[in-house]
Write a structure and sequence with these properties.
Number of domains: 2
Number of helices: 12
CATH class of the largest domain: Alpha Beta
CATH superfamily of the largest domain: HUPs
Distance between the termini: 45 Å
Oligomer: single chain
Number of strands: 10
């Protein structure tokens, strides 16, 4: 599948199209490809969005490069400046939250913003989640499309390796910036990319391709389970309320999956396994009282925390 076919198969040609443009190799390939599609009238409009995180002494130069690139190629451009604390334990999460906050404000109904994540990124994401103790949901990797605010996030390159993007950029003689922060191995993703994955690749070939297959398989399993849960527990998922006595004969592992789905539908952070076990113990393995309550939060603050409590015979799931 060609890089252009991959793009046109997933984007919505009649929607307003934004591209998150850092000026790096990946987003340069995506933006130039979208410009080609615009010239061929395969999409109706195009705008590049650059976020200056002000994390490097070169940030202003990267913004200028991005603006100049768009001017040279006659692409509408807008930049935003954000301030991120340089606390290394949270800087990646802060930067992501700042970006996505801007994206959400930009998108109107049915608008789409395109991100240049590729197959190698999926592999890195899966490894990060494994090392942090992910469940099956985490193995599903990234989604090609997902609703976001009033619009949609689209990742057209998830099935393509970075080498394909590099070939495309070189073929079209496109200039791009190299982010010096990518060499800072104090950040987990950089450490994986620069130290761990090259060592793994010396022993095992086609790592990102194999990880992509695992991700796709996990995603299908997850979608199958969600389909069956929605078919059998429509009322509970819709209301976020489980009538306790109706679950006396339901296996605990199935109740856990139902809880995860209820929380996901409400955009509530998933509890870790320790908290989930506490929920099961307090509300399902024992008889809860009206004082019974379990609360949790997501450390990076990207999603609302949650709480579970009991009223009469109902187990109620809400945002914290």
């Amino acid at each position: 599948m060609s890089i252009s076919t991959n793009l046109l198969d997933i984007i919505s040609p009649e929607s307003n199209t934004f591209v998150a443009f850092s000026g790096g190799l990946d987003s340069t390939a995506l933006l130039f490809l979208c410009k080609t599609a615009l010239n061929q009238k395969k999409i109706k409009n195009l705008k590049a969005i650059h976020i200056n995180h002000n994390l490097s002494e070169n940030s202003a130069n990267w913004e200028k490069h991005s603006k100049d690139f768009c001017k040279h190629h006659n692409i509408e451009f807008e930049s935003f400046s954000v301030q991120v604390s340089k606390n290394r334990s949270s800087v990646e999460s802060q930067a992501r939250q700042a970006r996505y906050g801007i994206f959400e404000k930009l998108l109107d109904t049915n608008d789409q913003i395109l991100l240049a994540h590729h197959r190698d990124d999926v592999f890195e994401t899966i490894l990060l989640r494994l090392f942090r103790g992910t469940g099956v949901d985490g193995l599903s990797g990234l989604n090609e499309k997902r609703s976001f605010g009033k619009g949609e996030i689209v990742r057209p390159f998830l099935n393509l390796p970075k080498s394909d993007l590099k070939f495309f950029v070189d073929l079209n003689e496109l200039s791009y910036i190299e982010d010096d922060t990518n060499m800072n191995n104090e950040f987990d993703r950089n450490f994986l990319r620069n130290e761990i994955i090259p060592s793994l690749a010396e022993r095992w070939s086609k790592l990102s391709e194999r990880a992509s297959f695992t991700s796709l398989t996990a995603k299908k399993k997850k979608q199958s389970l969600d389909f069956m849960l929605e078919k059998n527990f429509e009322k509970e998922i819709s209301s976020g309320i489980l009538e306790r006595t109706n679950f006396d004969n339901i296996p605990p592992f199935l109740i856990e999956e139902l809880i995860r789905l209820i929380l996901r539908k409400r955009n509530i952070a998933a509890p870790n396994q320790k908290v989930l076990s506490e929920i099961m113990n307090v509300f399902f393995h024992k008889k809860p009282s009206k004082e019974s309550c379990v609360e949790w939060s997501r450390k990076d603050g990207e999603q609302a925390g949650g709480k579970v409590y009991c009223e009469h015979n109902d187990i109620i799931f809400q945002k914290k």
